[in-house]
TrEMBL record:
Protein name: Putative sodium/bile acid symporter family (MazG-like)
Keyword Transmembrane: yes
PANTHER family documented for this protein: SODIUM_BILE ACID COTRANSPORTER 7, SOLUTE CARRIER FAMILY 10 MEMBER 7
InterPro entries: Na+/solute_symporter_sf, Put_Na-Bile_cotransptr
């Protein structure tokens, strides 16, 4: 297995660079206000393009596989929150109560869209079902994530108005998404032709949110609250959470009798969490001074899941055509 697969991608390097810039040169005062407005506009554009890129034909093609979709939704919105609560006695001492709120927020998020579909495609899984499941997860997450955040973070007395949060997210994320779907008939082909450079619009939106969030957090003393030992503990906590999610989705798909293509889709759609959705949602759900701590677990989990899933997808891709994987060949135990 090539060492390159374990190295961070360009976008992850950009995230690290933005965090460093925000730590050294945080936006404050009127500059922070201006960045806030620009960030909100960028988030709207991000979800407008998501709506314009999503093919209705692809959704219809995969929509009929309801057993698979129910299992993916259950893993995303039930299994992950239960893991977050169950692991608290073990992981909270490693990262502290405030960062563990970020772990719980991570557990409440929908699945990724692009990377889940990309890994499913690489591993020769059920691509139409992956498109439908990942897209629906992202869409339903607009309503389910605020409810889960209220339930999970209420354990620590941190939840606000759920209905207000849903209203804000609907206005900032869902309305642009629906507008993009409506505009797809006119701009869909143009978006398809230019998807290679339009991805930089997605990435720039996330980088803006990260810079704004970490600027506010740095001014509030973020790095005095997160020493190196705690950061290492957070990496370990994210690895444990991901390993359990991968193992659970793999075993559930097998026990419920899904074929290998469906099990691949369940594995990659049910075990991943969306940075592209989670960062903008945090901007809406939480006070700006707390966002840095809350999205730090998500940023680490995002990179870890990409590296691990790249290895797993490559292993699945190497299987012979028409040959199933035996019970002893569990992807979560792969060394290379």
């Amino acid at each position: 297995m090539s060492l390159k697969r374990f190295l961070p991608d360009n976008f992850t390097c950009a995230l690290v660079a933005v965090v460093a810039i925000a730590s050294l040169f945080p936006a404050s005062g009127q500059t922070a206000v201006a960045f806030g407005w620009i960030t909100n506009l960028a988030i709207g554009l991000l979800f407008f393009l998501h709506g314009a890129k999503l093919s209705r034909q692809a959704i219809i093609a995969g929509a009929g596989h309801w057993r698979l979709h129910l299992l993916v939704f259950a893993c995303t919105f039930i299994l992950f929150p239960l893991l977050g609560l169950a692991l608290k006695p073990l992981l909270s001492p490693m990262v502290g109560d405030e960062l563990y709120l970020g772990m719980l927020y991570l557990c409440a998020l929908p699945a990724t869209v692009q990377s889940a579909i990309a890994f499913t495609s690489l591993a020769r899984g059920n691509i139409p079902a992956a498109i439908c499941s990942a897209a629906a997860s992202s869409l339903f997450g607009i309503f389910l994530t605020p409810i889960l955040v209220a339930l999970l973070l209420n354990v620590h007395g941190e939840a606000g108005s759920t209905l207000d949060a849903i209203g804000k997210i609907t206005l900032q994320l869902l309305v642009p998404f629906v507008a993009g779907q409506i505009a797809r008939r006119w701009i869909g082909e143009w978006v398809g032709r230019n998807k290679n450079w339009l991805k930089f619009v997605d990435q720039s939106s996330i980088l803006l949110v990260v810079y704004t969030a970490f600027s506010a957090a740095v001014i509030e003393g973020l790095w005095h609250q997160v020493p190196l030992q705690t950061l290492i503990g957070l990496v370990v906590a994210c690895c444990i959470l991901l390993a359990l999610a991968l193992l659970a989705t793999h075993l559930l798909g097998k026990w419920l009798g899904f074929n290998i293509e469906d099990r691949i889709t369940i594995l990659f759609c049910g075990s991943k969490k969306s940075l592209a959705t989670g960062v903008p949602m945090a901007q809406v759900l939480f006070a700006s001074s707390t966002i840095g701590l809350l999205i730090l677990p998500l940023m680490l989990f995002h990179q870890i899941q990409l590296m691990v899933c790249a290895v797993i997808a490559q292993r699945y891709a190497q299987r012979p055509e028409g040959i199933n994987i035996t019970a002893t060949d569990q992807p979560t135990g792969s060394k290379g």
